[in-house]
Specification:
Blueprint (H helix, E strand, L loop, with lengths): L1 H17 L3 H12 L4 H7 L8 H37 L20 H14 L4 E2 L5 E3 H4 L24 E3 L4 H11 L5 E10 L11 E11 L4 H16 L5 E8 L2 E10 L16 E10 L1 H6 L8 E8 H9 L12 H4 L6
Parallel strand pairs: 1-4
Antiparallel strand pairs: 2-3, 4-5, 5-9, 6-7, 7-8, 8-9
Helix pairs in contact: 1-4, 2-4, 5-10
Length: about 350
């Protein structure tokens, strides 16, 4: 697979060097970096690699993507200059002259930036990114997650129903169930599922009726709680800094057993205690646990043979902690005073 990636890199760079206009560059961007491109196809085949090979190949794949993107961007700039110069030859007005008033440039939204950063961390560990519908069936949203009809755990998530059997998904866990069903018992499974979710919450500084989740799932033979802890510790260190520590506390979720809440050492005070962590030195960031046997069984995996772990985090909460934002509503009000701060990051 490493040879395929290196060959793909050589082929892409050769074609980019030969490209002569913007349309050709756009076609090459889609060809090599699009969702149906050869790089994505190779990444989807990483599930067949051993646990030792997957992070190595994942890093090689990221290096290949970055190399192609860098050459694409440089070539695009060069081609645009050439095309602009040729266009100006036939015009009487020099449109390249600076305007009287500068036009502010846009920047990446803080939530988009955090989602991309989280995806980069986990794809570097060999995970793939899966997506699913936001209008979901009752079966995949609840029943496949070990919450049959009239189960008391459904009260934990106040739901927007479209019909009796259709609803706005309350978490991205249905993507996990759909992926397991599609894979039909094949292992290993190693995915993250980012996307919007919806709950009938009262909007305030820490709650919103629409927010963003990223959930993760690993299923294979011999998966243990220690694998979950090591994965989340690595994530926390890459997201919040190398000195970050984590703490795991018992909890309850119907789709995991045992279940745990995960805290990180406060990034403001280093765990000493401050206003941000309310003097405790710890901040809760996500829920996790070992995949419940019923969830595995319903999607065709024998829990006597396979085990797995899952975790889920709110992107807004991660962004609020990372950037010191004190109100979740700031992410959705398009206040330029907030967004302009991210143009310099």
């Amino acid at each position: 697979m490493r040879d395929r990636l290196e060959a793909l890199k050589v082929e892409a760079l050769r074609e980019l060097e030969a490209a002569g206009n913007s349309q050709e560059l756009l076609d090459l961007r889609v060809k090599y970096l699009g969702k149906k491109g050869p790089l994505t196809e190779i990444l989807r085949g990483m599930g067949a690699l051993s646990a030792e090979e997957r992070p190595i190949i994942g890093q090689v794949a990221n290096d290949v993507r970055q190399a192609i993107e860098q050459v694409l961007d440089a070539k695009q700039e060069e081609v645009q200059k050439q095309e602009t110069a040729e266009k100006l030859k036939g015009e009487t007005i020099d449109v390249s002259l600076p305007g009287r008033q500068s036009v502010p440039a846009g920047t990446e939204h803080p939530l988009s930036r955090v989602i991309r950063e989280i995806e980069d961390i986990f794809t570097g560990m060999g995970y793939t990114v899966e997506e699913g519908p936001e209008v979901e069936t009752d079966y995949y949203n609840f029943e496949a997650m070990n919450m049959p009809k009239n189960h008391s755990a459904r009260d934990m998530q106040d739901t927007f129903y479209v019909t009796e059997e259709l609803l706005m998904r309350t978490h991205t866990s249905p993507v996990q169930a759909r992926t397991l069903k599609r894979l039909e018992g094949h292992v290993p499974v190693k995915i993250i599922c980012p996307g919007k979710v919806y709950r009938r919450d009262e909007d305030d500084a820490t709650h919103s009726h629409q927010f963003t989740q990223i959930e993760g799932l690993v299923v294979d033979k011999g998966i243990r709680m220690s694998d979950l802890k090591g994965t989340l510790l690595q994530f926390a260190k890459e997201m919040f800094g190398p000195n970050t520590r984590i703490r795991i506390r018992p909890s309850f979720f119907p789709f995991t057993e045992p279940s745990a809440e995960v805290d990180v050492s406060c990034m403001m005070c280093g765990g000493v205690g401050c206003r941000t962590c309310k003097g405790s030195g710890w901040i809760e960031i996500l829920g996790s646990g070992m995949v419940h046997p019923n969830v595995l069984r319903m999607q065709g995996y024998d829990p006597e043979v396979y085990s797995g772990f899952a975790f889920g985090m709110g992107v807004e909460r991660i962004a609020m902690l990372k950037y010191g934002i004190d109100d979740i509503r700031h992410f959705y009000t398009n206040d330029m005073r907030l967004l302009k701060q991210f143009s310099k990051l």
